[in-house]
Design a protein that fits this description.
- A hairpin with a 5-residue loop joins strand 1 and strand 2.
- The chain is of the alpha+beta class.
- The mean pLDDT is about 95.
- Helix 1 packs across helix 2.
- It contains three helices and five strands; from the N terminus they run E-E-H-E-E-H-H-E.
- Helix content is about 35%, strand content about 35%.
- The chain has a single domain, classed as GMP Synthetase, Chain A, domain 3 (2-Layer Sandwich), CATH 3.30.300.20.
- Strands 3-4-5 form a three-stranded mixed sheet. Strands 1-2 form a two-stranded antiparallel ribbon.
Length: about 130
């Protein structure tokens, strides 16, 4: 139940299942990878949007929590993004706009998931 995926950019990513499902629990589950990829996609966007606006952003972390359906297919039903954006003199409205633009225009992953999943987000700003 362990698999290695080779991406279009020639990188390898390992995925595995839980021991009770025949895996060895050595790597993330495929659905965890989906969440991680979506978080990475939107974090990239937020930083790039802030940088293009010449804002002094030095970091962005995003934590995702998700709920899944109880029965098969156990699709995501809700995903919440919590952003921690670090920088100097970042204004709330600027960070909020960057996050909104990511979720509504730029992040292909969250836009795709948003077609079938309730997505919410909040953020905090950490002064650098």
């Amino acid at each position: 139940m362990s698999f290695i995926a080779e991406t279009g950019s020639n990188h390898a990513v390992m995925m595995d299942g839980a021991a009770e499902a025949g895996g060895r629990n050595l790597a993330p589950r495929p659905m965890e990878m989906l969440l991680a990829g979506t978080g990475g996609c939107t974090a990239f966007d937020v930083v790039l949007i802030l940088q293009k606006g010449r804002h002094a952003v030095s970091g962005c972390e995003v934590s995702l929590t998700a709920e899944r359906a109880d029965t098969d297919p156990k699709v995501f039903t809700r995903i919440h993004f919590h952003f921690r954006v670090t920088g100097k003199d970042l204004r709330k409205e600027v960070v909020a706009r960057a996050i909104d633009l990511s979720h509504s225009k730029y992040c292909s992953a969250s836009i795709m998931l948003g077609a079938t999943v309730v997505i919410t987000h909040d953020f905090e700003i950490i002064e650098d």
